[in-house]
């Protein structure tokens, strides 16, 4: 069921004879901005694909940076308390841009749009379109309707209308891609608003997933991440509780695929058949994101997390026994209502025992509409902040120790685009090792530009230095390992960068690109590993 809500007229720019007329003789440009997790990033790829299928073109890089575009789409997150602040901060800035650009349109989608609905156009009446998580497919039609009617269009579907993976897609990367295996979540964690906004879990059929993986590989990708709110419950809908392990083995066997990852599992449903599939499938990378949330069994019960700390630690032990080099990351919430100092001490104990390579740590964020919002004993901000700082200090020490243990190891790095913010200043490239650790690597002095690794190529280097959040591999400067393997993925990146890539839309992983244009979706915000809540 879809609900179209009444909305006020779009706030048009003030009359000014000096303003140029809205362009009518060229394709309209677009920019998609993403606030949130991988699920949102992948949804943004679908939004970009639909816009391009409707005749829009990605804004050139300079125009995208200046937000000087005809259509800007903000794909929102509702998980954290400051989600609304981020959205309205962006919208406030864009109000001025819209006043100087006739015909510009602003659309808001994603989880916060699903939650707040018409509130968005009440607070920001210059917004043209609001659409939810269940009806991504209506974006182009709503934009056209808003232009024709000169009124904001707010349309929210209460249940999934079209499975997102059947929609056209403009991939953010040509060498690595997301493949959604399910949408929604059947868990009832008391702190989480995601099930309310994305609905019950819906699983794709295995054949559809494998077809999309094969299509991505056919377009040049060598790394794929299987994506879902709770990937290891995959298959329950069609009656096969071992479906996820089978899917890992089958996807990992796709010819041409070199790296397979997944995110995120739930500890309560994580079974040994998945560990066996990970260990037995060479393309499944030695990396696992396993959300802890709290080390206190009492708090886990209050969170409705159906596992306890010893079960969690047992899973980690079995993973490391089968995959000794596995890097394990996690999510942790500090300051859940009623959390005592003893509860927090249990979290510190489990973190110390778990030896996470990194952790996404969050201060509990009260979300209206969740059961936890009505719990007594909401903790003072000062208490939560002090505990948070202690947890971060502990994890920083562990991350640094775990990364120091990598020094001297030889690793294969998949070179990425835009991973290292200081690469220009340091003359390094950046990418991910097999275990997903971020590696900054140096090139040999005098290496010809034509021989330099491209995004999507693999480089073998020795780790020479470590920091809590990254590794450094300067072995090319010290006589150590340095070898480049140019890949199909690098070729695909080069074709896109030079404008040689053909346009190809389709539900099974279609993508398109143009040489001078910026990539369609632009990610703005939350951590890039792990969905924020499970």
TrEMBL record:
EC number, UniProt record: 2.8.4.3
Cofactor(s) needed: [4Fe-4S] cluster
Keyword flag Transferase: yes
Residues annotated as domain Radical SAM core: 171-402
Keywords for the protein's UniProt record, in alphabetical order: 4Fe-4S, Cytoplasm, Iron, Iron-sulfur, Metal-binding, S-adenosyl-L-methionine, Transferase, tRNA processing
Binding residues annotated for [4Fe-4S] cluster 2, in chain numbering: 185, 189, 192
InterPro entries on file: Elp3/MiaA/NifB-like_rSAM, Methylthiotransferase, Methylthiotransferase_CS, Methylthiotransferase_N, Methylthiotransferase_N_sf, MiaB_methiolase, rSAM, rSAM_horseshoe
CDD domains: Radical_SAM
Domain MTTase N-terminal: 28-148
Signal sequence extent: none
Catalytic activity reported: N(6)-dimethylallyladenosine(37) in tRNA + (sulfur carrier)-SH + AH2 + 2 S-adenosyl-L-methionine = 2-methylsulfanyl-N(6)-dimethylallyladenosine(37) in tRNA + (sulfur carrier)-H + 5'-deoxyadenosine + L-methionine + A + S-adenosyl-L-homocysteine + 2 H(+)
Domain named TRAM: residues: 404-477
Entry's localization field: Cytoplasm
Binding of [4Fe-4S] cluster 1, residues: 37, 77, 111
Enzyme superclass (EC): transferase
Assembly and oligomerization: Monomer.
Name listed for the protein in its UniProt record: tRNA-2-methylthio-N(6)-dimethylallyladenosine synthase
Source organism: Cellulomonas shaoxiangyii
């Amino acid at each position: 069921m879809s609900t179209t809500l009444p909305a006020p007229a779009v706030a048009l720019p003030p009359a000014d004879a000096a303003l140029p007329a809205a362009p009518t003789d060229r394709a309209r440009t677009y920019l998609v901005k993403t606030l949130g997790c991988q699920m949102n990033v992948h949804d943004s790829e679908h939004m970009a694909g639909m816009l391009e299928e409707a005749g829009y073109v990605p804004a050139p890089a300079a125009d995208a940076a200046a937000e000087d575009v005809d259509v800007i789409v903000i794909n929102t997150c509702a998980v954290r308390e400051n989600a609304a602040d981020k959205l309205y901060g962006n919208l406030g800035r864009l109000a001025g841009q819209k006043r100087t650009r006739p015909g510009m349109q602003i659309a808001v989608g994603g989880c916060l749009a699903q939650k707040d609905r018409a509130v968005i156009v009440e607070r920001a009446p210059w917004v043209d379109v609001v659409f939810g998580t269940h009806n991504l497919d209506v974006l182009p039609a709503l934009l056209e309707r808003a232009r024709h009617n000169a009124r904001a269009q707010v349309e929210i579907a209460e249940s999934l209308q079209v499975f997102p993976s059947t929609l056209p897609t403009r991939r953010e990367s040509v060498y690595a891609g997301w493949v959604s295996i399910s949408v929604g979540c059947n868990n009832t964690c008391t702190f989480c608003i995601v099930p309310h906004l994305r609905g019950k879990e819906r699983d794709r059929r295995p054949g559809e997933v494998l077809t999309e993986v094969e299509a991505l590989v056919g377009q040049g990708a060598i790394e794929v991440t299987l994506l879902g709110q709770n990937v290891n419950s995959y298959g329950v809908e069609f009656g096969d509780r071992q479906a996820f392990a089978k899917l890992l083995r089958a996807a990992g066997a796709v010819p041409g695929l070199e790296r397979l990852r997944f995110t995120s599992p739930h500890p309560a449903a994580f079974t040994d058949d998945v560990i066996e599939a990970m260990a037995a499938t060479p393309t499944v990378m030695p990396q696992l994101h396993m959300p802890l949330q709290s080390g206190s069994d009492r708090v886990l019960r209050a969170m409705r997390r159906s596992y306890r700390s010893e079960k969690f630690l047992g899973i980690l032990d079995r993973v490391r026994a089968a995959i000794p080099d596995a890097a394990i990351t996690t999510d942790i919430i500090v300051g859940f209502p009623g959390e005592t100092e003893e509860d927090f001490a249990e979290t510190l104990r489990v973190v110390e025992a778990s030896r996470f390579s990194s952790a996404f740590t969050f201060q509990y964020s009260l979300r209206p509409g969740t059961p936890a919002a009505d719990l007594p004993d909401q903790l003072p901000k000062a208490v939560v902040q002090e505990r948070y700082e202690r947890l971060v200090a502990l994890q920083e020490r562990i991350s640094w120790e775990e990364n120091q243990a990598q020094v001297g190891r030889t690793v294969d790095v998949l070179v990425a685009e835009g991973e290292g913010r200081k690469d220009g200043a340091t003359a390094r490239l950046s990418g991910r090792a097999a275990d997903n650790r971020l590696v900054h690597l140096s090139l040999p002095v005098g290496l010809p530009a034509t021989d330099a690794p491209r995004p999507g190529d693999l480089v073998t280097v020795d780790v020479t230095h470590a920091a809590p959040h990254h590794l450094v591999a300067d072995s090319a400067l010290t006589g150590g390992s340095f070898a480049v393997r140019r890949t199909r993925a690098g070729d695909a990146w080069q074709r896109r960068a030079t404008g040689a890539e053909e346009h190809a839309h389709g539900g099974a992983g279609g993508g398109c690109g143009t040489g001078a244009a910026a990539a369609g979706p632009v990610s703005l915000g939350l951590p890039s590993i792990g969905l924020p809540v499970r």
